[in-house]
Batch of 4 targets.
Target 1
Amino acid sequence: MALSKGKAKELNGLVEELLKHGFKEANTIDEQQAQHRNLCGVLDRIRRIEPKLRTTNGHTRLENVDSFTQWALANGCQAQNVRIAEHTEYGGLGLESTGFIPDGECVITVPRKLFFYVTGEPRYRKLLELMPAAMMSEPGNMLLALALIMERFRTKSFWKPYLDILPDRYTTPLFYTPDDMAELADTEALLPALKLCKNIARQYGFVRKFVQDQVEDLRDCFTYDVYR
């Protein structure tokens, strides 16, 4: 859904503000936490403007397991004595044995055609061409995320059964509030968590500014919520 000119202008201004906060010098823990709070504040305002896009098909992940399994087996995947099951104590889906598994036995074989990776297709090459040089030092995870977004919103994507079993949110610091982040104080996890959130916020800002309007497959589906 396209934004009105007024909302689009407001969003562009917030993206500039986000990048400004993201590249501000922050040396001490207090400065880094303050920077994180500022980034979260701007991102909250961005999320209120951006359209709310659904990344699921409306069914639970467990309900999508059968269609995913059929798709995987039909495309060359082999599985012996295991199944996908829900394990609420671990917060998601996992593998469960359905019979005796001898020590050292291979239980799953996945053909290369079912590896999701960024190929040399023209639409992916265009991403590489448009990506700012500043973002090209470690482009792998960013390009993979953009490729996943393209496929998620692509009509009749080959990868739909796989994408339908992915979670719509994750237990990573990208989903922490500033109060959640404060719980990591005095732990070794705090600095990596702050760094991750800052890097993803800056990536989002760069991608939206330089790529979204020039890549048709991302024009209407690239938002911060979808990207994270």
Target 2
Amino acid sequence: MISFARLLLRRVILLVTLLACVFVAVDLLPGNTARAVLGREATPEQIAAKERELGLDRPLAVRFWDWIAGVATGDFGRTARGRPVDDLLADKFPPTLLLGGLALALTVFASLALGAWWATRPGGAAARVLQPATTTAVAIPEFVIATVLILVFALALGWLPAVTITGRSGFPTGAEMLVLPVLALALPQIGWNTRVVRAALSDAALAPHVESAVLDGLSGRVVLARHVLPFALPTIVASFATTVGMLLGGALVVETIFNYPGLGAVLAGSVADRDTSVVAAVVALSGVVIMVVLAVADGIRSWSLRGRR
């Protein structure tokens, strides 16, 4: 079995490789960072001076090495417009974390409830409702769901706002502004995870010890909680851990649609400016969050498998 240290090292190497690919991809984008910052009226001399100031006249490999060395000390550098990237992330990442955290909590609660309902009633109304509903939810991307939610609940019914108004704290001014973005993020993941939970519980229910528990006269809830769920937990936790990455990626799209004050607008603007440091910093921060979640998932999986090896 791969030790935790080796697994962590592999993930760090994978993240560094991904960041190198981000540097290359942004460098290949059409346009010029210095011109994007200075505007169309900038002279060639001004653009050349700005490129020297930003270090864009150096080889790409050198720029990447200097940036990754700074990240190792906690310094993400500066944006092309001169603002420290650390300050930018400190302002914009908490709202994104709030949005993703609420969507994850809704996904976990709803998929566990719906998956258990489906698994315990495989031939009833649960299967007839959830089979097509979850397939549809998985097949439709977040931006389509977001558009439909806006059309129905904001424009047609007028129940919820279609855009987000930001307060001085940097967060939405009202909880109602979180409802549609959270639903747009969570619905596809609820569809997928409901199917995973149902399959994991159904497979675990076939184990001999579960049949023995049923023959002993234990109630269905006790059998599910004590004898089925622990054996299905590794698969379910792995699916939820994967969902974190999907939610972070989807949040960048959903935030743009709802004008939400998170990393989505920052990433869109940095791509337009070809601001490599900001794009790479967003990817690095998201990667670290995913790595932490995967480490927690590995710990839960090891705990659930104790005594079975």
Target 3
Amino acid sequence: MIIEPKIRGFICTTSHPVGCEENVRRQIAYVKKQGKTNGPKKVLVIGASAGYGLSSRIEAAFGCGAATIGVIFDKPASGKRTGTAGWYNTAAFEKCAAEEGLYAKTINGDAFSKAVKEETIALIRKDLGQVDMVVYSLAAPRRAMEDGTVYSSVLKTTGEAYTNKTIDLKTRTISDVTIEPATEEEIHNTVKVMGGEDWEDWIRALRSAGVLAQGAITLAYSYIGPQLTHPMYYDGSIGAAKQHLYETARRLTASDLDVQAYVSVNKALVTQSSAAIPIVPLYISILYKIMKKAGTHEGCIQQMERLFREKLFGSQGPVVDENQLVRMDDWEMREEIQQEVSQDWESVDTATVQSLCDIDGYWEDFYQIFGFAVPGVDYDADVEIQVDIPSISAQ
């Protein structure tokens, strides 16, 4: 069938298998061009099908030569409904790994569940023995507990209502938006979903089962951003969850689990999650224009390649700040970049939005998440939407 993007709210309800594969191949080509990194050799990536999780898996495999196991929660095509982008990304990753003789297998299911943890442990024990790195890159809106309780996260400010500029990306208009504060229950629930509790559950389960190598590294991802976005992020409901994540990293490292736990604070990028947060898309579209002009803009794969090569496994060992955080947002947070962002933020309105914002770049990144707007892909061609993930179809 011929597949077109269908946008509903902050998501695209279709995805393009050929575009997704080309996206994966382009990331792999970038990593291979940078040369080998002396990093981990057996890696588990939890949340491996898109964004930073997918790029981490690509960097581990094609940058470090690692065998990888990915945990995803995606759907194959059904009838005339396309599979999810994560499904197609994972199929493409395994295909490319096989072409180079790299071990790659995937488990599809709810990473929060005990069953998926047990299935993953059994696969590690059977095929790899142990893993020496665990990447935790889960981005889920809700978490179902074993007792049936379901927690849902919210994207809200805290304390009191917050008003600032936002952008309607479709109409390219600027307006004010007021965000109501989250309740204590909503904050608690967001921490349950997006904090470090499940990360710690994974590490303890892996260590208890004997499938985590001694001195293994484990890594989770976060974002801090400038003062401008703090009410919606750093000081918001998400920020409360991320503070819990930082505390979890410190607790894991100080525990008797014999792991080194790090949180990488990454650059602001277009994701399904960030597209849904008021104020943030306007900040990103201004930031993109400024960083591209400065020649310092990075996408997911550029961030992950630099993270592995320079920050985690470089000659200096892990490079962290005073809070033990790996700062991959270092280029975004440069003083001259943020000064220009602040100036443009004050000036931006509907009349100036085209000159001050990289909205085309924002939309390009958004569409590419789902395999659209990828250079070199013929979107008028008839494509097969039924695509297998080799390690899953072989079960």
Target 4
Amino acid sequence: MIELRGITFTPPDSSEHVLKDVDLTIEEGELLLVSGPTGSGKSTLLGVLAGLVPRFSGGVLDGDVLLDGASIVRTPPRERAGIIGYVGQDPVAGFVTDTVEEELAYGMEQLGLPPATMRRRVEETLDLLGIAEL
């Protein structure tokens, strides 16, 4: 379970909150849709969950983020990546390699998985999705 408790975020060089007193509970296995108009804080909210905000954006974050009851608000994104993922508005902008196979392996490389494990998981994923030819 992921919980946000009293999350308030103020961007750098601003006195206005993008997020204010957000409380949210996401149960394990729950599918959640975040929607709203441009500029309403959707990406900021997801960035807080993934640990990207305020680490890479700057600004002031108040409140707490809990994973299974333990605070992770100060846990770096790399340490959250095995549990919490984030795909931005433009998924293509998130690609870092030239091939599907390399892209599938990239995240596992960042987590430090052994090469044999990565190879097996990449092959399983390609087969499962029927995209080995890509």
